[in-house]
């Protein structure tokens, strides 16, 4: 995974922007941006998205897809501060895989961050084999489960059969963070990366 701070600095200089100019356009402080470029602090996804827009790129420039997340994991325990971004889907969903041995387990656990989207709707539902468990860690999630619209808040959990047509989305101004555990694990059927689910709205 690329060094985000170094890449921000590289793009800033390419765009002939000073730290002050970048700070003014993003609403972030000069001190914070300086620390970020030197790798001395981390950045929230919404702030990184703002920076990427100002620099004329998108999130996927900074958060590359890992073709095989297993290669970056050495231990069975995934520390929160070491958890990489595994997939950025259409600048709407950010996936963090939570297993160090994705090809050895029947379960596929991940944390998904749903970026704010006021234009999100129930959209198209889809179905696939297996079961899913969804637990809302932060924010609000709207679930379309076979036509029933279900509002979920932090602390709510939902276990369901994936063969039932379903979809979920975030139509708020805040980030939504969910824990998702799927069975069966798509890594068991893939040699490099999990199967792609149909795009959510």
Give structural attributes.
20% helix; globular; 2 domains; 434 Repressor (Amino-terminal Domain); 201 residues; 5 helices
How is this structure best described in words?
The chain has 201 residues and is of the alpha+beta class. It folds into two domains: 4-62, 434 Repressor (Amino-terminal Domain); 69-189, Sandwich (Jelly Rolls). The chain has helices at 4-14, 19-26, 30-37, 45-54, 59-62; strands spanning 87-89, 93-97, 108-114, 131-138, 140-145, 148-153, 157-161, 166-169, 176-183. The strands form two sheets. A six-stranded antiparallel sheet has the order 1-2-3-9-4-7, with no helix packed on it. A three-stranded antiparallel sheet has the order 6-5-8, with no helix packed on it. A hairpin with a 3-residue loop joins strand 1 (87-89) and strand 2 (93-97). The two termini are 27 Å apart.
Shape: globular
Give helix and strand order, one letter per element, not per position: HHHHHEEEEEEEEE
The secondary structure category is: alpha+beta
Roughly what percent helix? 10-25%
**Relative strand content:** 25-35%
Main sheet: strand order: 1-2-3-9-4-7
